[in-house]
Amino acid sequence: MHMDGDDEEEQEPVKLGATEFVCPGCNAYNPLDEPLKNGMEVQCNYCGNTYKAKIMESGRIKFRET
Ligand SMILES: [Zn+2]
I want to staple 63 with a disulfide (CB 3.0 to 4.6 A). Which of 12, 15, 28, 51 is the partner? Predict the structure, then answer.
């Protein structure tokens, strides 16, 4: 049996300095006015949710709802 516990939701890897992000809530593609950086707050143009970008050790960016 295969148990490696990777049932975490897969997110598109977003890199620092990206100029767009995909909303974790509604999967809408949103362009950004400025390159993404750690701690930056972004707002989805579609659902209106705001998220805070956090850089993970892997270099990926995780969005946390604010
Ligand atoms: Zn959204």
Answer: 51
